C-alpha cells in the first residue's frame, strides 16, 4: 500500500513545487514571492521525508529538520526586512 501511495504523493508534491517556482518567478508582488519561497521550502521538506520513507532509511530526517529551520528563519528575516527596512535592529 505504501509502495503505491508514496510515489503518487511525491509526484503531487513535485507538481506543487513547480507551481511554486512559477509563482516565485512571476509573482506580482514581493510578498507573493516570499510566500512562494516559504511554500517551496515546505514542499521540499515533504519530498525529502517521502523519499526517506520510500527508500527505507532514516538519515534524511535531520536534513528535513535543518531545511525547515532555515526556511522559518529566512521567512522571518525577509518579513522583518519588508516591514522595517532592516533585519537587525
UniProtKB/TrEMBL annotation:
Transmembrane stretches, start-end: 6-22, 34-57, 63-83
Predominant location: membrane
Entry GO MF terms: sodium:proton antiporter activity
Keyword Transmembrane helix carried by entry: yes
A GO term from the CC aspect: plasma membrane
Subcellular location: Cell membrane
Keyword Ion transport listed: yes
Signal peptide: none
Topology of the protein relative to the lipid bilayer: Multi-pass membrane protein
Keywords: Antiport, Cell membrane, Ion transport, Membrane, Transmembrane, Transmembrane helix, Transport
Top-level taxonomic group: Bacteria
Pfam families attached to this UniProt entry: MrpF_PhaF
Family recorded in the similarity comment: Belongs to the CPA3 antiporters (TC 2.A.63) subunit F family.
Record-linked NCBIfam families: PRK06161.1 (NF004812)
Protein name according to UniProt: Multicomponent K+:H+ antiporter subunit F
Organism: Halomonas fontilapidosi
Amino acid at each position: 500500500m505504501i509502495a503505491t501511495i508514496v510515489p503518487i504523493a511525491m509526484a503531487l508534491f513535485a507538481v506543487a513545487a513547480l507551481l511554486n517556482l512559477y509563482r516565485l518567478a512571476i509573482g506580482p508582488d514581493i510578498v507573493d514571492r516570499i510566500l512562494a519561497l516559504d511554500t517551496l521550502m515546505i514542499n521540499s521538506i515533504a519530498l525529502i521525508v517521502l523519499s526517506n520513507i520510500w527508500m527505507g532509511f532514516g538519515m534524511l530526517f535531520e536534513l528535513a529538520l535543518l531545511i525547515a529551520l532555515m526556511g522559518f528563519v529566512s521567512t522571518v528575516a525577509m518579513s522583518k526586512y519588508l516591514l522595517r527596512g532592516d533585519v537587525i535592529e
